[in-house]
Amino acid sequence: MIVLWFLIKEGFRGLWRSNYAGAFSIIIIALSLILIGFGYVAARDTLVMVENIRSQFDITIFIQPKVASAELENFTKELGNIREIERIIYISTDSAAAQFKLEFGEDIFDILDYNPLPPSFTISLKPPARNLISVEEVAARIKKFSIVDEVKYRKTFLQLLEKYQRLIFVAVVSAFIVLTLISIVLASNSIKMTIFSRRNVISTMKLVGATNNFIRAPFMIEGTLEGLIGALIAAIVIGLTFYFFNNYLQSFTGYRAIVSYRFYGGLIGLGSVIGLLGSMRAIRRFLE
Amino acid sequence: MITFFNVSCTFGKEAGVKNINLTINEGEFVFLTGSSGAGKSTLLRLIYMDLFPEKGKVVIRNFDSSKVRSSEIPFLRRKVGMIFQDFRLLEDRNVYENVALSLYVSHYKTREIRQRVYNVLNQVGLGHRVYYNSKELSGGEQQRVAIARALVKEPVVLLADEPTGNLDPRVSSDLMSLLTRINQNGTAVIVATHNYSLIPRVPNARLIQVNEGEIVNPT
Ligand SMILES: Nc1ncnc2c1ncn2[C@@H]1O[C@H](COP(=O)(O)OP(=O)(O)O)[C@@H](O)[C@H]1O
Ligand SMILES: [Mg+2]
């Protein structure tokens, strides 16, 4: 207990004494966490947006012309049995004609003397099924019904969406890993400067019989504190930016950045880990 | 207590020490003498295992240089006190903190640390300097802080490498009396020095003459 107290005091003392080198590691950790924090929120909200676009995705089923209403009713029931389907909208021949007039401004009966527009269904899928594989599978199942003439959906749109979603995800995860590693290395280099400036403390401690763990502990505490302070700075910068953004710019952009306390908790945790790992990496060389 | 078994520890071709056979007993006062570069510091460093022999081995109590693991060396150093010409105090700390460091690393309780530090500081005559910063002290006082730091852990042997190197003659003489008193309380003392004028200060001391890395008068 007393030892722990001694080591914590040593850690704080080190932080206090390290001035420039310590401030440098704090700034580096703060900057990386600001990048990581904004990057995370931007990526998260982009993915949410992509998901929203995905929710507008639907499949159109064109029915053969002149089918009996009993068959149609039966088919509707069959559609209802497909688990992946969320919503079914039936568009009759008449409403298709009305739709046509709405879209093209011309009455179909003025062009042709009969209505060529087949009845159709527009279905949307439940969220977990809104991916290319499920869509193709559902479409194939629907196509097997004899009254179905054609199943249409925007395949390239879906492909593109999935490609970008994957791309964003990979980019975010790799940026996160790279940034974290870079900040560990940079923080550890500046912690190394701190340790170098106090190598006489280390050699004195060795002289009087301190174990390596005992020598290491204050530097680890110091590094963790630096990480913690860096993270607090990052949290304040990000929090104020979002506050400003949401209160003054939302009307222009229509975007609201919302983060929970868990986000700030994560930042602070990550900052401490960066500081801790950075200091462990830094001290290694001085203990052989 | 300390035994060198045919120890060689060289740097490059000639420098260092060669074929050292030596036993130092509990409670002895030993002068390691010889000109600068003779190998005195090397012998001391072999004792506190800052260096390891290329040939032979050094055994201090139950620590054997040929078998010791690096994680055990701190425990050897808690039994061996060291002082140097340049004192090696932590300048940003006061006298109390410098001495207490020696006990904190061995996980003592605060009350015991306090008691022991005050005792040892009184013993070396620094009871009135407890909360002085080490920079505010004279050379002789700084060396006594270093001695207090070495002594507070109650070592079996105190190693002193040119302890008077930075002190004027009168202060050196006081220091030798202090080392003698410490020795009379049962701690072995090994003083490495090229200053032969210190020798008469300790009448019963054993002399070991080192020359070009070898012991001249084997005993
Ligand atoms: N780390 C080292 N590297 C190379 N040579 C060294 C090293 N330490 C000591 N020596 C050499 O070993 C010899 C003995 O040194 P040392 O034990 O310091 O002598 P002393 O303490 O008697 O003055 C000297 O010639 C010195 O130059
Ligand atoms: Mg020397």
Topology:
The complex is a heterodimer of chains A (288) and B (219).
Chain A: H1 2-17, H2 19-55, E1 59-63, H3 69-80, E2 85-91, H4 93-104, H5 108-111, E3 120-125, H6 132-143, E4 148-152, H7 155-197, H8 199-207, H9 212-253, H10 261-284
Antiparallel strand pairs in A: 1-3, 1-4, 2-3
Helix pairs in contact in A: 1-9, 2-7, 2-9, 2-10, 7-10, 9-10
Chain B: E1 2-11, E2 15-24, E3 29-33, H1 40-47, E4 55-60, E5 63-64, H2 73-77, E6 80-84, H3 95-104, H4 110-123, H5 139-151, E7 157-161, H6 169-184, E8 188-193, E9 206-211, E10 214-215
Parallel strand pairs in B: 3-8, 3-9, 6-7, 7-8
Antiparallel strand pairs in B: 1-2, 1-4, 4-5, 9-10
Bound molecules: adenosine-5'-diphosphate (ADP) and magnesium ion.
Give your account of this protein's structure.
- With 288 residues, chain A is an alpha+beta fold.
- Chain A folds into 2 domains: 2-52 and 161-287, no CATH class; 58-153, Alpha-Beta Plaits, CATH 3.30.70.3040.
- In chain A, 73% of the residues lie in helices and 8% in strands.
- Chain A is built from 10 helices and 4 strands.
- Chain A has helices at 2-17, 19-55, 69-80, 93-104, 108-111, 132-143, 155-197, 199-207, 212-253, 261-284, and strands at residues 59-63, 85-91, 120-125, 148-152.
- Chain A has a 4-stranded antiparallel sheet with strand order 2-3-1-4.
- The two termini of chain A are 28 Å apart.
- In chain A, 28% of the residues are buried.
- The mean pLDDT of chain A is 84.
- Chain B is an alpha/beta fold and 219 residues long.
- Chain B folds into 2 domains: 1-66 and 157-219, Rossmann fold (3-Layer(aba) Sandwich), CATH 3.40.50.300; 86-154, no CATH class.
- Chain B contains 6 helices and 10 strands.
- Chain B has helices at residues 40-47, 73-77, 95-104, 110-123, 139-151, 169-184; strands spanning 2-11, 15-24, 29-33, 55-60, 63-64, 80-84, 157-161, 188-193, 206-211, 214-215.
- In chain B, the strands form 2 sheets. In chain B, strands 6-7-8-3-9-10 form a 6-stranded mixed sheet, sandwiched between helices. Chain B has a 4-stranded antiparallel sheet with strand order 2-1-4-5, covered by helices on one side.
- In chain B, strand 1 (2-11) and strand 2 (15-24) form a beta hairpin.
- In chain B, helix 3 packs across helix 4 (110-123), helix 3 runs parallel beside helix 5 (139-151) and helix 4 crosses helix 5 (139-151).
- Chain B is globular and about 45 Å long.
- Chain B starts with a strand and ends with a strand.
- The mean pLDDT of chain B is 92.
- Chain A binds chain B through residues 2-3, 6, 17, 200-201, 203-212, 214, 288, and chain B through 48, 70-71, 74-78, 82, 88-90, 92, 101-102, 104-110, 149-150, 153.
- Magnesium ion binds next to helix 1 of chain B.
